[in-house]
Each structure stands twice: as structure tokens, then as C-alpha cells.
Specification:
Elements lengths: L1 H9 L9 H9 L2 H15 L8 H34 L4 E4 L1 H9 L9 E6 L4 H10 L4 E2 L8 E6 L8 E6 L12 H7 L1 E2 L7 E2 L2 H14 L5 H14 L5 H11 L2 H14 L3 H4 L13 H5 L4 H13 L5 H12 L5
Parallel strand pairs: 2-5
Antiparallel strand pairs: 1-2, 3-4, 4-5, 6-7
Length: 330
């Protein structure tokens, strides 16, 4: 039922739902919490806040300002980290986070941020770990063999949830792709007043966000909305042909097509915004079905297909199966 609201936020000719019962039901759906700040910001920027009921608008507004307060703190911490990388002449690329909200949604409070993700060169990992430890991120989470990041956290005053920094040296497990992170570094450019703090190219940002949504099997509307917003933001500057060519080279084509096809299936208005000619004819499990307590067989088969058959080669599929069956040996 969320789809009607999201679609109306991106298609000017489409009217917002007018039934108050619709908005009452929407607030009882936990998924609205995941995208409430985005919805509030989009409604406000389009001058449509007065087209939704007061109780719904007020609920969105409260979550928006809560997100703004948290993101202000996260931005302060992120700036300290980036300044430290710059001072040490160490290259770093922020991934997602508060910068993503500001750059692509247009407002610091327009997207919830739970942690700080930084891409560093693999040769700089140990130096980067020492840097973030000096800034108070001292609790190390268990490293998962074969993965591409490590996590450190510090407790926040008055909060039960710690702030986490994830240091990435790659974006995918080496055993399931032929990924080349150096391409991302070469296409990156300095951002703001920095020379060592970089930002990804528009195509690589989109690529990263798709892979991020795939890793979570699109189990929240926030992953859908991230992809939709980037398509809306980049529009004609987004080259799907180049994206697929890159995915073929990296052996991530199935993941990219599966994820984008699922989002286009869930939100058909995207075909009007920017057609995706590589869209799969396969019908993927809809978001509402993923979240419902019924269709357990469909949910199970969809998950198995996602978990083990999203890969371009049989060897990558086998690697993932063996990683599940024999995790100790992996």
C-alpha cells in the first residue's frame, strides 16, 4: 500500500491518496518508519504537505526532526574522521551516510543514517584503524572471513546504540565476483575543500547503491527509495548500457538486473521516468509478500534464489553454498 504514496511523490500528474483511512493504515505499517524522513522532505520540497492529513504530516515531521538531530551528530563525527584522513594524506571515500542524504535527497535530515561507511585502500587499512581508534572508536566487531570490511564503534552519551564506523577496502566478497575496486578510485574526484577525501562518480554511486540493496535483498523500502531517488536525480545522465557492460566485466550482472528489475516491478512508474531495457521477465516476490506472514513457500524459494543464484558463474554459486555449509573451513 506504500507504493501509491511513493509513486505520487515522483509522478507530478499522479494525485496523492485522499482517504484518511489510507494514512491511518500507513502509520500502522512499520515500513513507513524506514522512509518517513524521505517522504516528509519530498512532500515539503514539492509543496504537497498540505495534501496529507494533519496527523500523518505531524508523524512524518517528528521522525524527520529526530533524524535531523541524529544526522547532525553523525555529520560532526564524519567531518572529524575526514579531517583526520586529510591531515594524514590518506585517501578515503565516504559511502552513503549523511553526505548521500545531502547530495541526493537535498537535505541532511532526509534520510536515516545508522553508521559511517568509509572506503579506504587495502594497504591503508591498519593505519585507518589506528586513526579511528584515536577518535574513540575502539570496540572492534568480529571480522568475518572473506568479507570486505571491518567495524569499530563507540558508545554515545545517552544512547543505548553505539555509533559504528565501517572501514571498507572493497564492496563485494572476492569469491563471488571479479570486482575491480581500483576502477572506483580512478574515477573518483576530490570533494569540497579536501584533496584526499574523494567522492565516487555518479555511475559508481548508483552501482554501489544497487549492490547495497541486493545485499539486503531489498528487505526495506529504504533500499527501493535510494535507487528510485538516484534514477530521478541523474535521469538522462545515467547510462544503463555502461552499467551493464561494467557489471558483465565484474561478473555482477545477475545481481544488478535482479535488483533493478525488482524495483521496477514494485514501482512501474519508473518505466516512464527512465526505461530499463535489461529488465528481467521473471516475476520476483513483491515487497508486501516478503513482509507478510503468508506465502512461506514463495518467501523461502525467493530467498534461496537470491542467496545462491544471484551469481554470474556456477563457481561463484558453489562458493556461496560451501560458505554456508562449511563456514569454519571458509
Amino acid at each position: 500500500m506504500m507504493n501509491q504514496l511513493v509513486s505520487a511523490l515522483y509522478i507530478n500528474e499522479m494525485e496523492l491518496p485522499s482517504d484518511e483511512v489510507y494514512y491511518e493504515r500507513l502509520l500502522r505499517n512499520q515500513e513507513i518508519d524506514a522512509i518517513a524522513p524521505q517522504v516528509y522532505h519530498l512532500l515539503k520540497s514539492q509543496g504537497k504537505l498540505d495534501q496529507v492529513p494533519d496527523f500523518f504530516r505531524q508523524s512524518l515531521k517528528e521522525q524527520y526532526f529526530q533524524t535531523m538531530q541524529l544526522n547532525l551528530f553523525v555529520k560532526h563525527e564524519t567531518t572529524q574522521l575526514l579531517d583526520s584522513f586529510q591531515e594524514r594524506n590518506m585517501e578515503v571515500i565516504p559511502l552513503k551516510g549523511v553526505g548521500f542524504a545531502e547530495s541526493y535527497f537535498g537535505n541532511l535530515g532526509a534520510r536515516k543514517t545508522s553508521d559511517i561507511d568509509l572506503l579506504v585502500r587495502e594497504c591503508d587499512i591498519e593505519a585507518a584503524v589506528e586513526l579511528i581508534k584515536q577518535l574513540g572508536f575502539i570496540v572492534e566487531e568480529e571480522r568475518i572471513p572473506g568479507h570486505f570490511h571491518c567495524s569499530y564503534s563507540k558508545q554515545l552519551p545517552g544512547s543505548e546504540i553505539p555509533l559504528v564506523v565501517e572501514l571498507h577496502w572493497d564492496l563485494l566478497k572476492e569469491s563471488t565476483a571479479r570486482f575491480n575496486i581500483e576502477e572506483f578510485w580512478k574515477a573518483s574526484k576530490p570533494t569540497g575543500q579536501y584533496s584526499f577525501v574523494k567522492e565516487l562518480s555518479s555511475l559508481h554511486i548508483f552501482y554501489m547503491i544497487i549492490l547495497h540493496g541486493w545485499r539486503h535483498n531489498l528487505d526495506s523500502l529504504k533500499y527501493h527509495l535510494d535507487i528510485i531517488q538516484l534514477i530521478h536525480f541523474f535521469k538522462d545522465d545515467l547510462d544503463f548500457d555502461l552499467l551493464i557492460t561494467m557489471a558483465e566485466k565484474h561478473q555482477t550482472k545477475k545481481r544488478i538486473i535482479r535488483t533493478l528489475s525488482s524495483v521496477y516491478q514494485e514501482f512501474p512508474f519508473l518505466d516512464c521516468l527512465k526505461p530499463f531495457r535489461y529488465k528481467s521477465a521473471k516475476k520476483y516476490l513483491g515487497f508486501s509478500d516478503k513482509k507478510s506472514g503468508s506465502n512461506l513457500y514463495k518467501k523461502y524459494t525467493d530467498y534461496i534464489n537470491y542467496q545462491y543464484f544471484s551469481y554470474d558463474t556456477a563457481s561463484h554459486t558453489l562458493e556461496e553454498i560451501f560458505a554456508t555449509i562449511l563456514p569454519a573451513k571458509k
